[in-house]
Specification:
The protein is of the alpha/beta class. It is built from ten helices and 13 strands. It folds into three domains: about 60 residues, 2-Layer Sandwich (Alpha-Beta Plaits), CATH 3.30.70.260; about 140 residues, Cobalamin-binding domain (Rossmann fold, 3-Layer(aba) Sandwich); about 80 residues. Helix content is about 35%, strand content about 25%. Strands 6-5-7-8-9 form a five-stranded parallel beta sheet, covered by helices on one side. Helix 3 links the parallel strand 5 and strand 6. It starts with a strand and ends with a helix. The mean pLDDT is about 90.
């Protein structure tokens, strides 16, 4: 099992961390570099964590667990209208990114109205392509409770945010509820507001850990980061994608941001040293997001092996 962690430290000798992670069979998911500091999002085997911790301590760096690393989270508002898309939506999306997640903001087509709010099939399918979803509601308790129908049939864990205090048990279809995040006409700057964002990150992290535990019971045939590396090597066109993140990782696969009709065969033909091709160990289908390629890795119970 690969553990998601975040390394923060100086530029000096950070290449030792990169080399060690690669030697241990781990993956560097993302590298953010400033003039004097570097942040690395890492996936590393759990049993090798003490080795990495010892090196980080020697380099005077910081290593913390980052449960959001290598995941995609949907941040959803009832509509894109100004009264449903306040500053807090951007704050939540950006805060999740800072903790390692890839976020996509979605405004619903018919999310307006306590009694008439709806979610269509396309929106449900798009949200289900993510690893988790955050629904951003306002300040009315009754509205938040009645709009549970918007996410009751989703297959991914849902974290709901809103202004009033509500017992999470009153929202049976939500994984968790985070209060004190209502409609605000300003950016989150106060300590209490940042604390609420931290609670959202914690709730999403626990939801993702639950998904990881479920996957561990029937492991994937191979890991998404390994497929990502193989696709980069064997489908060079992905490096010319105009998207800022040409390959987005999920817990059970990845999204390749190339046209499905043109590159589905090339992706399916990606091969591994074990003598198998990607099309034999994963389903490859069009994504609901534009014309991208969605790869979902089959579990060991279907393929009969893990590598």
């Amino acid at each position: 099992m690969l553990e998601p962690v975040m390394f923060t430290g100086g530029l000096y000798k950070h290449d030792l961390v990169v080399e060690l992670v690669e030697d241990l069979g781990g993956y560097i998911l993302q590298k953010n570099m400033t003039q004097t500091e570097i942040i690395l999002l890492i996936l590393i085997p759990v049993e090798d964590m003490p080795v990495l911790q010892a090196l980080v301590k020697e380099l005077r760096g910081e290593l913390v667990r980052a449960p959001l690393a290598g995941t995609e989270v949907a941040v959803i508002t009832p509509t894109l209208a100004i009264h449903h898309l306040p500053h807090v939506a951007c704050d939540i999306a950006e805060y999740l990114r800072r903790h390692g997640s890839k976020t996509n903001m979605i405004g619903m087509a018919r999310g307006v109205g306590r009694e008439i709010a709806q979610i269509n099939e396309y929106e449900s399918a798009l949200i289900n392509e993510h690893d988790a979803a955050v629904f951003i509601y306002g300040n009315f308790q009754d509205c938040i409770k009645k709009k549970g129908d918007l996410y009751r049939n989703l297959s991914v864990p849902v974290v709901v945010t809103g202004g009033p205090e509500i017992d999470p048990k009153e929202l049976p279809y939500a994984f968790d509820y985070v209060q004190n995040i209502g409609r605000m006409a300003h950016r989150s700057r106060k300590a209490t507001e940042i604390g609420s964002l931290d609670k959202i990150v914690d709730a999403v992290g626990r939801a993702l850990d639950k998904t990881r535990a479920s996957i561990a019971k029937d492991p994937l045939t191979t890991s998404p980061p390994r497929i990502m590396d193989a696709v980069r090597e064997q489908v060079p066109e992905v490096e010319f994608s105009y998207s800022p993140l040409p390959i987005a990782l999920n817990l059970n696969g990845l999204r390749i941001k190339l046209p499905f009709s043109r590159f589905k065969d090339a992706v399916a033909a990606v091969s591994f040293d074990e003598g198998v091709r990607l099309g034999e160990i994963a389903t490859i289908r069009p994504s609901q997001m534009k014309d991208y390629i969605l790869v979902r890795i089959l579990p060991a119970s279907e393929t009969g092996f893990v590598f």
